[in-house]
Specification:
alpha/beta; 2,3-Dihydroxybiphenyl 1,2-Dioxygenase, domain 1; four-stranded mixed sheet; 2 helices; 8 strands; 17% helix
Length: 127
């Protein structure tokens, strides 16, 4: 029986650029770095207040990384989308969509991470 989600893996070509994005644009904490038995370079990240990790993997032997549009995304809660968007844009990552108000009153927006992966930002509605 499944107990809990531990991590999600995204494979990338440019590990350094992707690690920089997760650390310096999203502000995630790097929790570990290693090389797997088959030679994959692995870097794990964790968002504040979360138990689950994100595994970034570089393994050139798997061939090119091809991320189709609207294939997958990671969603993160933010306190202030406008402020986050301003800081991310200053680092070269402008919003790709939004911000938009959802039916629940939350505000959502998206930005593109390196390699074409999409990041969703959610500012929860005030109760």
């Amino acid at each position: 029986m499944i107990k809990k989600l531990l991590h999600t893996r995204y494979r990338v070509k440019d590990l350094d650029k992707t690690v920089d994005f997760y650390k310096n644009v999203l502000g995630l904490e790097e929790t570990s770095r290693s090389t797997s038995g088959r030679g994959s370079q692995l870097v794990f990240f964790k968002a504040p207040g979360s138990e689950e990790e994100i595994e970034i993997c570089k393994f050139d032997e798997s061939g090119p990384v091809q991320v189709g549009p609207d294939l997958t995304h990671l969603a993160f809660e933010v306190d202030n989308i406008e402020e986050f968007a301003r800081l991310a844009a200053a680092k070269g990552y402008p919003l790709s969509d939004g911000p938009h108000k959802s039916g629940s009153g939350s505000v959502i927006a998206f930005l593109d991470a390196p390699e074409g992966y999409e990041i969703e930002l959610i500012q929860r509605a005030k109760s």
